[in-house]
Write a structure and sequence with these properties.
The complex is a heterodimer of chains A (about 290) and B (about 160).
Chain A (H helix, E strand, L loop, with lengths): L3 E4 L3 H5 L1 H13 L4 E3 L9 H7 L1 H17 L3 E4 L2 H13 L5 H15 L11 E3 H8 L2 H7 L7 E4 L3 H4 L15 H7 L4 E2 L15 H4 L1 H16 L5 E4 L2 H18 L7 E3 H8 L21
Helix pairs in contact in A: 2-14, 3-4, 4-5, 4-6, 7-10, 12-13
Chain B lengths: L23 H4 L2 H5 L4 H9 L18 H5 L6 H14 L5 H13 L7 H10 L12 H13 L12
Classes of the chains: A alpha/beta (about 290), B mainly alpha (about 160).
The structure holds iron/sulfur cluster (2 copies).
């Protein structure tokens, strides 16, 4: 295992800092050698910035990669968007073929202006893939001191598993590796209709066509509510925001009463490792997580 | 379909000309269940040379990659769509909400910058008031701004319009 540069992006530190705290606590408890990637910027968000200007997107991503390279560490992301963006960028700028090296030359012309260079050596990991590969659910469950007796609706989110051309998970259509990690905490992963469907936030849709994006998450919520479920567990702060503040918006505009607690996996894991809900900001969601507090 | 030289491998990866209009993409599309987006017809339109840059449908895709994963012709549908969006943006076809996101990046290095409410949440958790990103490092923020300028990103939006 290479040492880790932890990359939080925008939404975690700036909207759901509880996930930042939970990640720090979990990695420390698991005795992982990590350091935060200091002075990082936005990853930058793939759905919007890659849509607007590919070279800009790639160059800003390359700066983040180059900072990790200087630390001689791989990047660990805690967000599907950051993972999608940085993993795509790193796979296009690595040393695997000439086309990549040529592209890197172009990117480095920009980076040169700020005294940086990227050599294509940084790998990008996603916290769920990382825990699953480097530890595995059995090892995680051995470390759990406070097994959780809750029924969980697991939401993978698209960019944790797709595109498979760039991401080697167990399956894009029916993945299980995240469910196994959830169950390692003692929880039950409950299947629900359209489990692998998108939350509706990505691609700039949440910002640009907000009402339609909320319709998409409402469908997911309806499917989740049709089962006996105590909480939603995701692994991306953008899906997290969509589920959390989405419920609040739906309740306000449509006279509904959604109150499903939403947790990032690191928060669930932290609870099972003995930390309290307030240690990891579970009380700071828009939807109050009373039953889990 | 073969290109003029008869060699499939010479077609670019993202070529939509390989599309056989089977509809697996649109049938897999979650956005298509809730919005007018029909990715199959959008591809058809573009492949037949008709303009698509003004289509609102372009902006309904959440980039979930379901279509791309299932396309039997292995067309990189999302990569194609993002490149079309980019052309649209460079022609000035951009939503005001997306301009705001661009402005956030240009000003702060973050798509979603910190605010007072979240500074307080951070403090209650025992985290530093500001995260260890560009927000805490003026030199780094200047670097990011220089890169954005070097790429010409600032010219995409006319700041007076915001
Ligand atoms: S799945 Fe592929 S081949 Fe079929 S209609 Fe869509 S783009 Fe064309
Ligand atoms: S990537 Fe876009 S077009 Fe393709 S299935 Fe997902 S939402 Fe539809």
């Amino acid at each position: 295992m290479r040492k880790i540069a932890l990359f939080f992006g925008c939404l975690i530190p700036n909207r759901y800092p509880g996930i930042e705290m939970a990640t720090n606590l979990c990695l420390a408890t698991l005795d992982i050698d990590f350091a935060e990637l200091e002075s990082a910027s936005c990853c930058p968000a793939p759905g919007v910035f890659r849509s607007f200007d590919e070279m800009t997107w790639l160059t800003i991503a390359a700066r983040n990669l180059a900072l990790a390279e200087k630390m001689d560490r791989d990047i660990l992301t805690v967000c599907n968007g950051c993972f999608g963006s940085l993993n795509e960028a790193s796979s296009r700028l690595d040393n695997s073929n000439r086309k990549n090296k040529e592209l890197r030359l172009q990117v480095n012309k920009h980076l040169e202006k700020i005294g940086l260079e990227y050599n294509g050596t940084v790998k990008v990991r996603h916290i769920i893939e990382f825990l699953s590969q480097e530890f595995g659910s059995d090892k995680i469950s051995e470390l759990v001191t406070h097994p959780l007796k809750v029924n969980v609706a697991v939401h993978y989110g698209c960019h944790m598993v797709k595109p498979t051309e760039k991401i080697k998970g167990d399956s894009a259509e029916n993945p299980v590796f995240f469910d196994l990690l959830v169950e390692a905490t003692g929880a039950n992963s409950i299947s629900y209709p359209d489990k692998n469907q998108c939350c509706g936030a990505g691609g700039g849709v949440r910002a640009g066509l907000h009402d339609r994006s909320i319709q998409m998450v409402e469908h997911k919520l309806k499917m989740i509510r049709s089962k006996e479920i105590d909480c939603i567990v995701d692994a991306c702060p953008f899906c997290h925001m969509q589920f959390d503040s989405g419920q609040y918006e739906i309740n306000n505009t449509q006279n509904q009463n959604y109150k499903i607690p939403v947790l990032h996996y690191t928060q669930l894991l932290a609870l099972s490792l003995g930390y309290g809900p307030e240690d990891v900001g579970i009380d700071q969601n828009v939807i109050k997580n009373n039953e889990l507090e | 379909m073969k290109n003029s030289t008869g060699n499939m491998s010479e077609l670019p990866d993202i070529s939509i000309l390989k599309c056989m209009q089977c509809g697996i993409c649109s049938g897999s599309c979650p956005s298509g269940r809730f919005m007018e987006l029909n990715i199959r017809t959008l591809i058809k339109k573009s492949a037949s040379g008709r303009p698509v840059l003004d289509e609102d449908e372009l902006w309904m895709c959440t980039t979930c990659y379901s279509c791309q994963e299932r396309c039997p012709r292995q067309i990189k549908i999302v990569d194609w769509l993002l490149s079309v969006r980019s052309k649209a943006v460079h022609e000035g076809n951009i939503k005001p909400e997306h301009k705001q996101v661009i402005k956030n990046l240009l000003d702060t290095g973050h798509a979603v910058p910190i605010n007072q409410e979240n500074i307080e949440k951070r403090e209650r958790l025992g985290l530093s008031s500001l995260p260890s990103t560009v927000v805490k490092d003026d030199g780094a923020l200047k670097d990011v701004k220089n890169l954005l300028k070097s790429c010409g990103f600032d010219t995409i939006i006319n700041e007076d319009q915001i």
